[in-house]
Specification:
This protein has four helices and two strands; from the N terminus they run E-E-H-H-H-H. The model has no long low-confidence stretch (mean pLDDT 80). It has a domain of 77 residues.
């Protein structure tokens, strides 16, 4: 704040995205990994009740990605969770619960 001739004038603050991210996710590489995970979550939720062939294929692909036990590839679900310090089993369990509420008649639940 600055005071000019009896008036208080507010100075704008500069806010950087890195100020809001935990230090573990403040590098560009980790932000990219987080973006991949976020897109997978959006795709999962967006296409869960899809009926057309293309959308069902996208859902099946992202569902398989979440279920994969691959730890070798950098952009695997487990690889991303490990790099970001996220508990993969927790994410899977939350997705499974969410799926149960959005597909109540699901015959074979997601294998996590």
């Amino acid at each position: 704040m600055m005071e000019e001739m009896g008036r208080v004038q507010l100075e704008p603050d500069i806010i950087l995205p890195g100020q809001f991210l935990p230090r573990t996710i403040s590098t560009p590489e980790k932000r990219l990994l987080l973006a991949v995970l976020e897109e997978a979550l959006w795709t999962f939720q967006r296409y869960v009740i899809a009926t057309d062939r293309r959308s069902r294929a996208l859902f099946a692909e992202v569902e398989t990605w979440f279920a994969s036990e691959d730890t070798v590839r950098l952009y695997s679900f487990l690889g991303i969770c490990d790099a970001l310090g996220i508990d993969a089993s927790y994410v899977r369990s939350r997705l499974g619960r969410w799926l149960g509420t959005h597909q109540p008649g699901l015959i074979s639940p997601t294998p996590w």
